[in-house]
Amino acid sequence: MDLGIAGKKALVCGASAGLGYACAQALVQEGVDVLIVARTEAPLQQAATRLRALGGGGVMALAADVTTEAGRASIFAAQSDFDMVVTNAGGPAPGDFRQWDRDTWVRAIEANMLAPIEVIKATIDGMMARGFGRIVNITSSAVKSPVDGLGLSNGARSALTGFVAGLARSTVARGVTINNLLPGTFDTARLAGNFEAAARRAGRSVEQVVADRLAKHPAHRFGRPEELGHTCAYLCSVHAGYINGQSILMDGGSFPGVF
């Protein structure tokens, strides 16, 4: 299927690895010119090299922390207009809410709610003026099914979801859609790190922890990052203009509800 987006411009955040990289990869393969952003220069440039080797769209890379005002300013100084934006930031650390002070909450909200909103604010008017725009926020399945111990993520990402639900209704008539992707367990370095930490806490091997998790998973496997990347690319396509204000759960059926 031709997604009809070749030659358009995209900003993909957190794109040096994992799900952000997978989204950038899918867009480049569709001929989109992509600016990839992440905080650390070396892995970001390595990611850019791999993306350029694919052919397709052009690739620019900029090391910047999108969760800070200075980082966002450097991004929009390099390029101001985008047809697509993929927001993506790592979730805050787990813990006991009794130990979180106000500053801890503010950092989580800044990274996982306010930063995406600021990126949207900087790009959405230009999209509406041109009559086409796609915004995809990579959040978490915890928005749909909150995870005990991940209160910072549950709260901040759910707040972003509520904001987006309202905003999306005011932009779609001008050709701009806003949607969220809610990943469950995907085979990324971050997931591997989580399993290693869980194994240390439990005094078990990583293999045992992973086996237990897979045994409880309906698909008996973890998601492949490229699966989410291709879904992101479709949401950015000309064919997805009637998908708007949605939170699309990608967890292999782990959530046990109907809606």
What distance separates the N and C termini? 29 Å
Q: Can you give the mean pLDDT? A: 94
Major sheet: arrangement of strands:
3-2-1-4-5-6-7
Count of individual helical segments: 8
Low-confidence segments, given as residue ranges, are: none
The arrangement of helices and strands along the chain is EHEHEHEHEHEHHHE
Largest sheet properties: 7 strands, parallel
Helix-strand makeup class: alpha/beta
Strand residues, percent: 15-25%
Radius of gyration: 18 Å
Number of strands: 7
Q: Give the fraction of residues assigned to helices.
A: 40-55%
Shape: globular
Compose a concise summary of this entry.
With 259 residues, the chain is α/β, with parallel strands linked by helices. It contains eight helices and seven strands.
Task: Walk me through the topology.
Layout lengths: L8 E5 L4 H12 L3 E6 L2 H12 L6 E5 L5 H10 L5 E5 L13 H29 L2 E6 L12 H18 L7 E8 L5 H14 L3 H11 L8 H11 L11 E4 L9
Parallel strand pairs: 1-2, 1-4, 2-3, 4-5, 5-6, 6-7
Helix pairs in contact: 1-8, 4-5, 6-7
Describe this structure in words.
The protein is of the alpha/beta class and 259 residues long. Helix content is 45%, strand content 15%. The protein contains eight helices and seven strands. It has helices spanning 18-29, 41-52, 69-78, 102-130, 151-168, 189-202, 206-216, 225-235; strands spanning 9-13, 33-38, 59-63, 84-88, 133-138, 176-183, 247-250. The longest helix is centred in the middle third of the chain and has 29 residues, at 102-130. It is globular, with a radius of gyration of 18 Å.
